[in-house]
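Folding problem:
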Amino acid sequence: MIEKQVLKEAANFFLIPEDKIKIKERLLGGMSNYTYVIEVKDKLYTLRILGEGANLFVCREKEEYNLNVVKDLGITNETIYFNQESGVKIANYIEGKPLQTIDYEILKQVSQIFHKIHDSGLLAKTDFGLEERLNDYEKYVKVIDPKYFKLKKWWQELYYNKYQNNQKVFCHGDGQKSNFVVTKDKLYIVDFEFSGNEDPIFDIAVFGNNNFDDALNLLPIYLNRKANKEEIDKLHFYRMQQALQWYSVASFKEESGMSTKLKIDFKAVALHYLNEAKLHYKALKE
């Protein structure tokens, strides 16, 4: 079903018959969309089809605006077609593999990409909206664990008392390992769906999505010095928000029946993020 839609969308854009388009593979990673590599006239592209409910969590107008803002930084692939209504996006394919192995040299390259974004002076269409996203995302979940609201309330109090007025820069917003592509020549970052203006440490925290140690190891390289306790606390603070945010997204997907459709246990994913939020809460309480 999805592959038929991929062929139809590609044929409409490239103005060629569907049988002239080859689907090479589906790229894995992420919880929201279906992204395929297609071949058209001996050239490779990526074509994204939105997953169920994906538009509830992302504004496509903002995404397209932000993609245009960063297009000249030389850090991501070129988008050649973007439909705000359907969310279909076609981009030039980057020959490479998702980032998996983390070492010092890779962390330096990740740091350089984040600095190129953060230090550019560019601004996204809007702020990321830390609290607003939590409020919006939880509206789509029918049954929420009471522990979520307790953690969220504590996080909000800390936000108001300490972090509300942090200086903001353009942030990628979802710079986890799966959104970095390793090529022969350099490292690229893709998928600006969740981009917005926020404290740069927010992006460092996202990099720890699979393993928070990755964020802890990246932080001193990004700062070019040893991180102090205040900076490490800030890293925990932003990661706690991200864990609460993704708890709601995973819970929505479980309730929508997507665990069966995508063969991903979103109930377990939601619980993982809730437990992670609790770990960061404990770290910040110390």
